[in-house]
Amino acid sequence: MLRLAVLFVVLGHVSLVDRGNFKTCNDSGFCKRNRNTKPGESPYNVQLPTVKSTSPSRVEAEVINTKNGVVLKLELIALEEGVLRMRLNEATSAVARFEPKEALLDSIQESDLKLEGKDDSSFTVTFGKHRAVVRATPLVVELYSNGQLVMVANARGLLRFEHYRPRDAPQDAGGAGGDAHNEDSAEYDDYVPVMRGHDSDQPDEMLDQAPEAEITHSHNKQEQSGGHADKAADEHTDENAKKHGNDQADKGTAEQSVEPTDNKGDEEAEKEDKPQEDADMEGAWEETFKGHKDSKKHGPMSVGMDFTFEGFDHVYGLPEHADSFALRSTVGSSDPVRMYNLDVFEYEVDNVMALYGSIPLMLAHSESRTVGLLWLNAAETWVDIEPSSKQGVLSSVVDFVKRSPPPNHRETHWFSENGLIDTFFLMGPGPKDVMRQYRSLTGTTPLPPLFSVAYHQSRWNYNDQDDVRSVDAGFDEHNLPYDALWLDIEHTDGKKYFTWDPFKFSQPEQMIRNLTAKGRRMITIIDPHIKRESGYHIHSEATEHGYYVKNKDGGDFEGWCWPG
């Protein structure tokens, strides 16, 4: 009976969570498009004649999508503290993609990046004790620290960059090869918005990232010394960079939680109804969640890439989620980890549901080394994590010769709804080094005030000033220390922030002094949703100065929350 009672308690707890408040990958067009991309031969190739040093700290090159001719600009930038920044963006476009520049410090310093060598298949750059080998066909970036391979970008060929296109133009996937729905993709490949050598207007507007749909509260091989002289390692890497993509193809999408539609009749009917879209571009221009329509003014512009951590069993990070400390595999068992800030106070533990905060930082740690990856993108982002594997980029050949067991590695796949690919490789080699490198990008955490780390008393809601006085006196009566008392939204006049209810909280200054006289603080809630009411001075000022988030038509975005 006790076991049965425990089961009822657990089931009762789980039933409190309304899963309908959480968007899944199956509800998101761009998530499905990226997750359905199969490992294999990537269509993105580096144009080696375009490789050049543009400054002592920067190397640039053009990358072409061989499916449609769209040209991307690849930038490698060396930063102080042992960080390499990799940016990939459209070479030219009528729309500028959003960049969350405010997330970075203004004081970031660049350091020397040397273009050490270039041949007919790759080029190499060095920064401090580290180097990056960039393979051309397809684009693969290998990161070495003290001669040891630690990270690889696009090893599985999952790079996908949905280029800007007008709505009345034919729609192609704009992504990686081997897409789940590409039987008819040839008819779309004729549309080429940006080709190398073609002129294009400069960006005339910024991409609006504000979502409208969701309103809810291996490897371990030591290289020989000398720049690019290790021919054997390079040959092994060439062979295995291809193998790393091809040997994953047999996995298919059967392991994944989202399967492609196979009904040809439905696909043909959909094409007749929506001539602008093919089946692979579902949700490209608009989609609906819980009755809210999300219109995508600039169409499909998602970006995605896979990153492999070589020689590591475990990866960590991607806060905030109520999941295990060491991140678990998501492929075949759950949705990808979702990065999207939500005010949903009911959630499940051991789950990758999105919560209050999102920090796209991942660390890989082993007994001998620690590295990190920062994916700088403010849009909704999903991250798939593969199980730990023994088959690495280089080790399958090298370790067969050496008769030594290959080290593990972790494969990850990152994709965002829009923006550009802007990635920071934190080369370590130790945990303190990675934290210092991350700190050099985003700054340090401010030291919190002493009262903020003590006990805070809060509930929804205190009825009036007498209720506050009674609760405060109760702590004194029972000799319980506390440092702050919180008031929820009901203290306001009609749920208008920065106001007081004239009847229930008619003497706020006296109420606050009663607390501060004992060394205690009062904190009032202020959320980022303002009541739309004529005569409310906060609303009037925000409207007059254009402070509100804008909708797709440029007007003030209106949503629903506590004020109505």
Automatic annotation (TrEMBL):
Tell me the pathway.
Glycan metabolism; N-glycan metabolism
According to the record, the segments passing through the membrane are none
Q: Where is the composition biased (Basic and acidic residues)?
A: 215-253, 261-277
Q: Where is the Glycoside hydrolase family 31 TIM barrel domain?
A: 445-564
In terms of superkingdom, the source organism counts as Eukaryota
Q: What GO terms describe the biological role, i.e. biological process, of this protein?
A: carbohydrate metabolic process; N-glycan processing
Molecular function, one GO term: carbohydrate binding
Signal sequence, start to end: 1-19
Which region ranges are annotated with the description Disordered? 215-282
Alphabetical keyword list? Endoplasmic reticulum, Glycoprotein, Glycosidase, Hydrolase, Signal
UniProt keyword Zinc present: no
Q: Where in the cell is it found?
A: Endoplasmic reticulum
InterPro entries noted in UniProt: Gal_mutarotase_sf_dom, GH, Glyco_hydro_31_N_dom, Glyco_hydro_31_TIM
Name any GO cellular component annotation: endoplasmic reticulum
- Glycoside hydrolase family 31 N-terminal domain residues are 74-384
Family classification: Belongs to the glycosyl hydrolase 31 family.
The name under which this protein is listed is Glucosidase II subunit alpha
**Taxonomic lineage of the native organism:** Eukaryota, Metazoa, Ecdysozoa, Arthropoda, Chelicerata
